[in-house]
Every structure is written in C-alpha cells, then in structure tokens.
Amino acid sequence: MHPRTRLMIATVVIAAIATLAGLAYAWYWVHRTGGGTPNNPAVQLGPVQTGLAWPIALGFASDGRIFFAERNTGNIRIIDAGGSLLPTPFYTLTNTATAGERGFLGLALDPGFPSTPYAYAYQTYNDATNGTIYNRIVRIFANGNVGTFDRVILPMPPLSGATNHNGGVIAFGPDGKLWAVVGENANPSLAQNGMSLLGKVLRMNSDGSAASDNPFYGSFSWENRVYTYGHRNMFGIAWHPVTGRAYVTENGPNCDDEVNRLAAGSNYGWGPTASCGSLPPPADTNRDGPSPVMPLDWWTPTIAPTNAAFYTGSLLPQSQNHLMFGAYNDARLRELALSADGTTVVNETVLLTAPSGILDVEMGRDGFLWVTTAAAIYRLVAQPALVQVLGLPPSLELWVREENRESASN
Question: DSSP secondary structure string, 41-98?
C-alpha cells in the first residue's frame, strides 16, 4: 500500500476514534459518578507531594505553608509557600508508639497561626519511664520553620493491650475551641462511662482545660471536656459553614459505619451490648445508654470512613456546603448533600476513587479540597481539557508518527 494511502487511512481511523471517544466522554460527563453537570466539572486528584510516609493530617498556615503529620515517624513536615518540601522536619515527636492504629494521629494549627505560634499534636506516647502507653495532646511552639516542645495539654489514661480504637483527629472549630475525637480503646463500656475521656468527642480551650460552656461543665460525675459520648472509633470531624454544627465520621464493627451530626451532651449509642445483626440497621449498633442518637447515614459492609470537610471552594459550584469525606477500605471520596437544616442526607455521590485508602480530607486556604493517602498528598482539580482526555494510545500514536516519517521520505 502506498504510504500516502496508509496515512489517509490512519487519519480516518484517528478521526473515528476521536468521534467515538467524544461521544463516550459526553456520556461519561452526564452519567459519571459524582455529578456531570456543566457547573460541576469532572475532577481528579492532582499530586502535590508523592513518596511520603503516611501523611495522616494536614494543617494550613495563613502564610501559605502546609504542615503535615507523618503517622509512623512522629515528624511534622512543611511544604513551603512555593510548593517545596523542606528537607528538615519542623518537629519530631519522639517515643511515638505505632503498633496497630497507634501513632502520630492528629495535627492542628492555632487559629491565629503564625501570629499565635502554636501547633498541636495528638500522639500515642510510649512512656518507657513509667512503663505505660497512652494518647496525649501536646503543644509545640513555632519559631519560623522550627518547632520546640511547649507542654502536654492533655494526657489521657494508659491504654490496654488493644492497639486499636485510638481516634486521634484534632481540629479547632469555628468557636475557637480545640476538639478531639477519641476512640474507646476496644472497650465499649468506656464509651458510656462519663468519667472516661475514651469513646468521646472532647472540646477544650487551647491550654487543654474544659470549655466552660460544655454540656457537662461543673459536673462531678462527668469529665468536663466531654461534648458527646457513646462513640466507638471516629476518624473525622467537620463543621457546617453556615450552621457551625459539628459532624463526625465513625467506624462501626462489621456493620454500620456512620456519619453523625453532633448535639451537645448527646449519646451516640455505642456500648457494651451493642453488636451487629440483632436489630434493623442502624439501630443494631446504636442502642446502648439513654436516648441514643441515630446516624445521618451508615454503610454496611463497612467502608472505614476517615476525615471530612465541608466543601466551600469554587471548582464545584453545585457542591457548596456539601460534606466530603474519605474512606480507607474502598479509597473512595464521597459527597453527602444535606437538607437545609443539616439533619438528613438528600443525596450521596462518589466523586472519585484514590490510588489507595484515603487518610485526610481538608479544605485548604487556597479554595481547593486536599486529600492524603499513605504515600501522597493531593488536591482535587478539574480533569484535563477534552483533547487531553482523548489522548491517543501510545501504540497508535507511534504508528502515526512512523507513517508520517515514511510519507515524508517518499
């Protein structure tokens, strides 16, 4: 066959492929998981840093720096305002216990950071001197890109031999208080024990003392930092940008992973007799203690929901004020559209699937949604333009180049 004839055939084939791909992409745009309307473009994860060691929590400074916690090393690392990862850690939490679900689990920057130069960390601490291991929240003083230990603001009780159910996410709420989600150390009875810090959402001042408007403040039968109780093992907390109401993600046993809307002083039903299968979901794991609150949404089989954020960016206009959260088991980034009063879920969408289990989900100061996995930090960005999405397979592209080269030589 004459080279020019072959080139003409190749051109026709490529045009046909592009047409079919265009139709397929148009169908995908309308029917894709996660939306498909012109006002909500298709999205993907854009890598910011790769090759990392469990970046479990992010913190965004007003000067453009991004701090992140490495679960197993105890390091706090910094990505500078120019996007470069600084080689020297900001601070290293020594004696971090990392067995099972333990480790350096949570990171928060003071709301006034860096003018108020404190970073906060939730760490499973190996106290070798006293032969105990416990979770604690510590405060670190920041001098530029270097941190120094300030103080322990909240030591928690010694842990049992169980290495799971530590919780660990900490964050400052819109009320300026420091919140912490704490697992029950695989002991369900502690979730219903008012004097235990475990199995609770805690709310405190920046020095670790109980907030004076907490629901049990002043009580002698309740730990005064407790905001809600009856929790099993939470990995996420977020506040609605309009109502200011707090929401948490919670891991169930082999059923009923949850999203819960928090109400001060309320019980969320996990306790010593809670189990799967005896009652219709979600009541089967939410029946212990007085007046247990049912979740907004739940999943069986379990998905292991992780951290969450309400979307306030401009990339996805139709997702404004929707709750975004990750999952570790299926690596999916989910979106929940809530009712106007935030009490029910109107719609659930899967936006995308990450390369591996999702650890953290945060709204950045840059207006982008940020996501981490065990090896990388990403931002949620629009998919490339149609011509890029329809890129030719490498084999066909190579064939066309060869045909062009042969045609030119003839």
Answer: --EEEEEEE-S-S-EEEEEE-TTS-EEEEETTT-EEEEE-TTSPBPSS-SEE-SSB--
By the 10 Å C-beta count (0-12 exposed, 13-18 middle, 19+ buried), 55 is classed as: buried
Cα separation values, 73 from 179, 181, 307, Å: 24, 22, 20
The pair of structure tokens assigned to 126 is 């190996």
Q: What is the pLDDT of residues 369-381, one digit of tens each?
A: 999 999 999 999 9
% of the chain at pLDDT higher than 70: 84
Cα angle 204-260-317, degrees, rounded to a multiple of 5: 100
Q: What pLDDT is recorded for position 385?
A: 67
pLDDT digits (tens, 9 = 90+) for 182-211: 999 999 999 999 999 999 999 999 999 999
pLDDT category, 60, cuts 50, 70, 90? very high
Distances (CA, A) of 340 to 322, 346, 373: 11, 10, 32
Q: Please report where in the chains the tokens 């850690």 appear, as a residue.
A: 89
Mean predicted confidence (pLDDT) in 293-298: 97
The model carries a pTM of 0.86
Q: How many CB atoms lie within 10 A of CB 305?
A: 29
**Taking the domains of the chain in order of start, what are their residue ranges?**
1-40+387-410, 43-288
> To which H or E segment does residue 204 belong?
strand 200-204
* Terminal CA-CA length for the chain: 13
Beta bridge pairs of residue 203 = 179
The continuous run of DSSP H or E covering 405 comes out as helix 394-409
One DSSP character per residue, 144-185 reads TTEEEEEEEEEEEEEP-S--------EEE-TTS-EEEEE--T
Q: What is the rounded distance in angstroms from the CA atom of residue 57 to the CA atom of residue 77?
A: 11
Compute φ and ψ for 407, nearest 5 degrees: -65, -40
Tokens (6 digits) for 97: 């216990």
What DSSP element (H or E) covers 23? helix 3-31
Domain at 43-288, CATH class: mainly beta
